[in-house]
Amino acid sequence: MKLTKDPQAMLLLSVHGLFILSSALSGTFLNVYLWKSRQDYTMLGWFTIAQQVALGLTFWAAGKWVKEHNKMNALRLGIAVSGLFYLCVLWAGRDAVHYIWPLGLLFGVSLGLFWLAFNVVYFEISNAENRDWFNGWIGLLGSVTGIIGPWLAGWVITWMHGDEGYRLIFTVSLVIFAAAVVLSFFLRKRPVQNDYNWLEGLRRLKEGGVWKYAVWGLAVQGMREGVFSFLITLLVFVATDQESKLGQFALITSAVSLVSYWACGKWFKPQFRKIGMLVGAVLMLLVILPLLLAVNYTTLLVLGIGTSLFIPLYMMPAISVSFDLMGLNQENVEKRVELVVLRELSLTLGRITGLLVFILVLSIKQDTLTITLLLLFLGASPIGSWLFMRRLFPSKEQVT
């Protein structure tokens, strides 16, 4: 199958692009908006944990709907609930910090519905030969929206001097989410499958084998994601106290990411996945080291540029190998919804673990050195992930 000639694949990428554009516009500044009401790292940690708890439960519970009924409706509802979340933030205003758990749970439900449906459809329209290419396009779209969205949002918020700017950006996000819902109706209804097995993931873990290594590898990977997903941008704002600087940071790092994902999508071959993933993991750790000298805009920019440059080497193999396992045999293909759920629950477990470590440490001590050492500890998790996942990569002879 030539993915480039599949209109449904292009349409799915377009819906994905609108979703992440809206998320980039508002999501980049959401934690800053909450921080300006209450300067508390642990509060943001609990907000993110609420998201992850709801995301994991939604993945598991909605799996039945996605497998046995209309997965496109799950995708649409996920986008719609994302819009509802930002509507609630607009309504709550500065009092949003008093509703951390309900807002976080609502946000997590929206993400769970969208990404479960998206990942299942993504598996159905791609295969082992073109998956790296597809991942490259996803990365490119993320980079382009990361360039446009945060920079524009930062400029608007700065120009409008605060709350009015935030309200405008959140409103624009609502409009884009609505456009994504409308576009999603042009996606064909996907075939339904047999009964959903609620305990398939547990069965796979008990059996051991390749999925044991995949689950542990994904869980360790998630430890970094849970904290880095919000802390780096927050540190940029804390260091500069300027939304425009945060928008500039996102523009620069996303521009680098665009080039690196394009290059990896074009030249990265399956036989290089194993070594490429390790190299990417090591380099992503090394770019954190400048923060030991000082945590300022310059060192954070080094971290951001370095991560954007090297993360495709790590992330593309990590994504591809787990999805390749789903197509390993006919049984796995038939259980693809359950296996997508298992994949996401593994990542969610790791994210929650990393966030709990973050909250525990910062509940004891909140200074720059402690935060930097915590970033180094969690930033090493991709290497741990590689130690598990390296067993899943075929030998060079098998892929050439």
Automatic annotation (TrEMBL):
PANTHER family referenced in this protein's UniProt entry, alphabetically: INTEGRAL MEMBRANE TRANSPORT PROTEIN-RELATED, MAJOR FACILITATOR SUPERFAMILY (MFS) PROFILE DOMAIN-CONTAINING PROTEIN
GO MF, one example: transmembrane transporter activity
Protein name, per record: Major facilitator superfamily MFS_1
Topological type in the membrane: Multi-pass membrane protein
GO cellular component, one term: plasma membrane
Lineage: Bacteria, Bacillati, Bacillota, Bacilli, Bacillales
Organism: Paenibacillus vortex V453
Signal peptide extent: none
Membrane-spanning ranges: 42-62, 74-93, 99-122, 134-153, 165-187, 213-240, 246-263, 275-295, 301-325, 345-364, 370-389
Alphabetized UniProt keyword annotations: Membrane, Transmembrane, Transmembrane helix
InterPro entries: MFS, MFS_trans_sf, Sugar_transport-like
Subcellular location(s) per record: Cell membrane
Gene3D superfamilies in alphabetical order: MFS general substrate transporter like domains
